[in-house]
Design brief:
Blueprint: H1 13-34, E1 38-43, H2 50-64, H3 73-96, E2 100-107, E3 111-118, H4 139-146, E4 149-154, E5 161-168
Antiparallel strand pairs: 1-2, 2-3, 3-5, 4-5
Helix pairs in contact: 2-3, 3-4
Length: 171
């Protein structure tokens, strides 16, 4: 006599559903990264004026990729959003992680991906509750509001991390 009940046909249990959901999310991420048609890198270790340098680098990439000059209000907003997200991520690395190591900008068919690597161990997050009237503490709130997704990936080597954000490409 068995002490386990038989599951209905096709029922793999809740653990299998979690695994499938996790696999589906991973496949979406892999597809999106594969869709990046071009990636540009800017080394920032020891550089001065990293925020302005990063914005200039991003602006040049967006010009080369046809985002600029912006022919419509939507395209102008997309460019401004991308430059603001770059500024916020690089500034966060300057203020909280000893400075950025590298900026990567990736272009996909429907996505612009911004990545900033640093040696910091912290994990950025929007301040809660968000207090709009107070100075400071708005960077990750802004990133969260402007981007489709954002996240933090620890460096596999154990020191540092990459903070990434994905914005929709203008139509």
């Amino acid at each position: 006599m068995s002490t386990t009940r038989q599951s209905p046909a096709g029922d793999c249990g809740p653990e299998a559903e979690e695994v499938v959901t996790s696999i589906e999310a991973s496949l979406r991420e892999v597809r999106e990264v594969r869709e990046l048609r071009q990636v540009r890198r800017l080394k920032l270790v020891g550089a001065s004026g990293t925020v302005q340098r990063s914005r200039d680098f991003t602006r040049e990439a967006l010009e080369d990729w046809g985002w600029m000059p912006a022919a419509s209000a939507d395209r102008r907003e997309a460019v401004e959003d991308a430059l603001l997200v770059v500024s916020e991520l690089v500034t966060n690395a300057c203020l909280h992680a000893g400075g950025p190591q590298e900026l990567r900008i990736g272009r996909g068919a429907r996505t612009l991906r911004v990545e900033v690597t640093d040696d910091g161990g912290g994990k950025p997050s929007p301040r809660t509750p968000h207090q709009a009237g107070r100075p400071g503490g708005h960077g990750m709130f802004i990133v969260q509001r402007l981007c489709r997704e954002w996240g933090v990936e620890p460096d596999p080597g154990g020191s540092g991390k990459t903070v990434w954000a994905e914005l929709p490409a203008p139509v």
